[in-house]
Amino acid sequence: MAAAGGESSTTNVSDELFQNFYTEVKQIEKRDSVLTNKQQIDRLLRPGSSYFNLNPFEVLQIDPEATDDQLKKRFRALSILVHPDKNQDEQDRSQKAFEAVDKAYKLLLEPDQRKRALDVIHAGQEYVEHHVKEKKKQLKKDGKSLDMEEDNPEVFKQAVYKQTMKLFAELEIKRKEREAKDMHERKRAREEEIEVADKAKRDREWQKNFEETRDGRVDSWRTFQAKGKKSKEKKPRSFLKPPKVKMEQRE
């Protein structure tokens, strides 16, 4: 019974932390949603933004369970705030911030991409909850206090945030690795195609040259054969005539 009670207690704590987490997230979203245009641009371009901005819900500062209408309204409000036309003094930075907002919005418009992002967020939450649960089991087994840092909603929230960001980063790294591999394969296939095409071109040129010079080669061969026959023909034998002997005259 004690074990069952402990298990129930752990589950209740986890559920409570989960609800506190979402409550605080919504409070943060409400607070950040009134940031000035410069503050929003700074948020979207802060150090490490290439990984922070992989979470489209974080980019748009919107609840993962938001409706399509809420998503559209939030995108419109935020995109106007960071649009280059509204930030003439720093158009380059505002353009990058606007692109981040636009990319996140378009991603969430795709059902498959949105589901993928939600799956990552849920996986991050489940990982932290499982970690807390297992750690409390070990503490209980060791006869130690079940108090943990993650009992603090703020610490729990940060743990979920970090784990979620880590998962998004890992997926992005894997995506880039696949992209690099595919690019390498396409490059290698293209090089092979070029090599085959070059070989075929050389073969055609050789065949063309062979055909064009065939008559000349035949004539040369015939001339060579004719010369050979002449050299082999027997020349008539010539016999040496003995010198004439002058007869001596007697006086």
TrEMBL record:
Compositionally biased residues, Basic residues: 227-238
SMART domains for the chain: DnaJ
Main subcellular localisation: nucleus
PROSITE patterns: DNAJ_2
The keyword Magnesium belongs to this UniProt entry's keyword annotation: no
Key words, A-Z: Acetylation, Chaperone, Nucleus, Phosphoprotein
InterPro entries: DnaJ_domain, DNAJC8, J_dom_sf
Location of this chain's protein in the cell: Nucleus
Gene Ontology CC annotations of this record: nucleus
Domain J as annotated: residue spans: 55-122
Region of interest: Disordered: 176-199, 217-251
Subunit-structure text: Interacts with SRPK1. Interacts with HSP70 (HSPA1A or HSPA1B).
Its job: Suppresses polyglutamine (polyQ) aggregation of ATXN3 in neuronal cells.
Listed name of the protein: DnaJ homolog subfamily C member 8
Native species: Dissostichus eleginoides
Taxonomic path: Eukaryota, Metazoa, Chordata, Craniata, Vertebrata
